[in-house]
Amino acid sequence: HLVQSGGGLVQPGGSLRLSCAASGFVFSSYTMSWYRQTPGKEREAVAVITPTGDITNYSTSVKGRFTIARDNVKNTVSLQMNSLRPEDTAVYYCRADGYLTFWGQGTQVTVSS
To answer: Is 28 exposed, middle or buried (0-12, 13-18, 19+ CB in 10 A)?
Structure first.
């Protein structure tokens, strides 16, 4: 299971942090990602981190503003989002990929003045 927290409403230029707590599987063996989705569009990956956390990758739209991190002791993954823009408004999901695939429940992020 993946349980998300964080999100909400923030003004342009502000910051938010999303967290995702994992249970029921060997977290340290799974690649973790953050996706986002807006109405009428496909879910898109914005950040990914390898099981050991040594490699991260970001979509062009968020590179330099978002940071993905994981804690393999606490079984958590986070997404620090800085310099937020209105176009970052979306429902954000965490995802675990390994032997199985798990999704978090989604959390709304709204960037608006």
So the answer is: middle
